[in-house]
Amino acid sequence: MTDLPDVTRLPVKHLLRLEASIVTELRRRDLVRTNNKPLGDIAEHVVWLARGGVLEPNSTKSHDITSAAGQRIQVKAMANRAAGAGARFSPFRSADYHTAVFLVFDAEFEIVEAYEVVADHIEQHVRFVPHVAGRQPSLTQVRSLGTDVTAEMHAAYARIDGASPQLNSPAL
After folding, report:
1. Which of 30, 48, 100, 169 is the most exposed place for a label (fewest CB within 10 A)?
2. Containing structural domain, residue 157
3. What pTM, to 2 d.p., does this model score?
């Protein structure tokens, strides 16, 4: 496997672009059926860097991060908004969280929008969709219900590619 490029020094955004092109090619060859990406995990890491607390294990129900103050935060991410403002985030199947942070990435994996929405707003304003067994907010709904936290998430995202381990720890 020595003919493979050394990816160890590539910035995260470049790794995501490379991964996206690989998945696109695998789909073109009919070898994979989905566009599942590591973007959700990276979005969780960004929010954790911004907010601190504990990044919960993947098996934790209803939230991804517990802040130092005990607030449960759910993280949702979306990339390449082909459907525009009507695009939907993955569904909420439980309301056992305090807030949700939504990150929107463009085709170059830059964060272009980020919003925080309290759980009660999602429960009250986003209808339950039986076939997905949850509430699946659109980008339009998130924009109208949320508080813009784009600058905060940009600052945290900028820290991901740093070589120092301190850059990959939450701000205290």
Report:
1. 30
2. 39-161
3. 0.84
